[in-house]
């Protein structure tokens, strides 16, 4: 028990001091001599590359193995993800795999069930011991092990000195360190912490309500696309989090770009049919819960009728999936239109038109 309450002073002081230094330093530079425009561009570059180093790198590549990547890409993520100061890939991935396995339970390192602020930042203030038993695959990558062994010098250099050195090209070493280093680090910390707090707190659950993970497009804007967290917890092997082409998921787009350049391959993608089935099952569960409490009179056999509508929709969808690649275009069109009309009436039922479920 005593072990649980021990405070990790180094992390705690670091997480409290870095925003103070970042904000105060930026204000001081701004007032005393102004911050050159290229320093702000560097700030944005560091923001994006370290944030995506965590989401596309630490998270989707290393923790979930959602795709494979060449050495330059892996090194980029080890260096820039490291500059996000969120511990080594080995520790981060070990925690994250435990999070998925035991989500919302006692073992979940950042369980939202222990409170919003616990999931956001307070869990980091506690001293923890890592067994690193659940990441044997990652230990086989010598570069990941190298990053773990030299964990402190790598982020210290990449997070502070690297932007400082780049900014010295236009004579702004201090701006590089304070604005593109400290300020960027603190903002980025909280942007990624949102994934553990807000993405388990506010949003919709189109795929499952068996855990607290939520889909939230607004949060995707700040989390490099990880706002589609309900989908992610259901289909963690998928390299995407936002699955529709217009879903804001820059991590997905970066991975896809790497693939087009031949730098990434084996991108795992859950088949659309499987995602669709999960969604329909969740729709049905919601309807049942709603209708059980409904005040309007329902036919006695509403449960079996609803079940039939769902089955019929999934059958039409399976037929269409099987037919999609067929040469017989007319038949494909016919089956697709049957599926579309079944889907339309399912959506009518969802929108509250109970009578259409019984027509
Ligand atoms: Zn989660
Ligand atoms: Zn994950």
UniProtKB/TrEMBL annotation:
GO terms for biological process: fatty acid biosynthetic process. It is a multi-pass membrane protein. Its EC number is 1.14.19.-. The chain crosses the membrane at residues 7-31, 37-59, 71-89. This is Acyl-CoA desaturase. Signal peptide: none annotated. The keyword Oxidoreductase applies. It is found in: Membrane. GO terms for molecular function: oxidoreductase activity, acting on paired donors, with oxidation of a pair of donors resulting in the reduction of molecular oxygen to two molecules of water. InterPro entries: Acyl-CoA_DS, FA_desaturase_dom. GO terms for cellular component: membrane. The keyword Lipid biosynthesis applies. Keywords: Fatty acid biosynthesis, Fatty acid metabolism, Iron, Lipid biosynthesis, Lipid metabolism, Membrane, Oxidoreductase, Transmembrane, Transmembrane helix. Residues 39-242 form the Fatty acid desaturase domain. It is an enzyme of class 1 (oxidoreductase). Belongs to the fatty acid desaturase type 2 family.
């Amino acid at each position: 028990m005593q072990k649980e309450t021990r405070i990790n002073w180094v992390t705690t002081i670091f997480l409290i001091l870095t925003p103070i230094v970042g904000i105060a330093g930026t204000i001081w530079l701004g007032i005393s001599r102004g911050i050159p425009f290229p320093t702000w561009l560097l700030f944005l570059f560091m923001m994006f590359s370290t944030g995506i180093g965590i989401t596309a790198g630490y998270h989707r590549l290393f923790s979930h193995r959602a795709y494979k990547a060449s050495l330059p890409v892996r090194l980029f993520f080890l260096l820039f993800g490291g500059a996000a100061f969120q511990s080594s890939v080995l520790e981060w991935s070990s925690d994250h795999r435990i999070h998925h396995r035991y989500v919302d339970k006692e073992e979940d390192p950042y369980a939202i069930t222990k409170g919003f602020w616990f999931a956001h930042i307070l869990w980091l203030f506690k001293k923890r011991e890592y067994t690193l038993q659940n990441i044997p695959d990652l230990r086989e990558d010598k570069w990941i092990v190298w990053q773990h062994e030299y964990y402190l010098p790598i982020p210290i250099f990449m997070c502070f000195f690297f932007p400082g050195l780049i900014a010295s090209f236009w004579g702004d070493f201090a701006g590089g360190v304070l604005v593109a280093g400290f300020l960027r680090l603190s903002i980025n910390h909280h942007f990624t912490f949102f994934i553990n707090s807000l993405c388990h707190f506010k949003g919709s659950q189109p795929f499952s309500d068996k855990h607290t993970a939520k889909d939230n497009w607004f949060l995707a804007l700040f989390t490099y696309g990880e706002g589609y967290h309900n989908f992610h917890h259901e289909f963690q092997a998928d390299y995407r989090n936002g699955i529709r082409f217009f879903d804001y998921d820059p991590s997905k787009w970066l991975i896809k770009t790497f693939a087009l350049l031949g730098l990434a391959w084996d991108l795992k993608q859950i088949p659309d049919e499987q995602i669709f089935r999960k969604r329909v099952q969740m729709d049905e569960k919601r309807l049942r819960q709603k209708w059980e409490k409904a005040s309007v009179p329902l036919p006695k056999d509403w449960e079996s009728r609803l079940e039939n509508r769902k089955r019929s929709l999934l059958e039409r969808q399976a037929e269409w999936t099987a037919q999609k690649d067929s040469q017989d275009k007319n038949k494909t069109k016919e089956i697709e239109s049957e599926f579309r009309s079944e889907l339309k009436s399912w959506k009518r039922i969802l929108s509250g038109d109970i009578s259409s479920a019984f027509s």
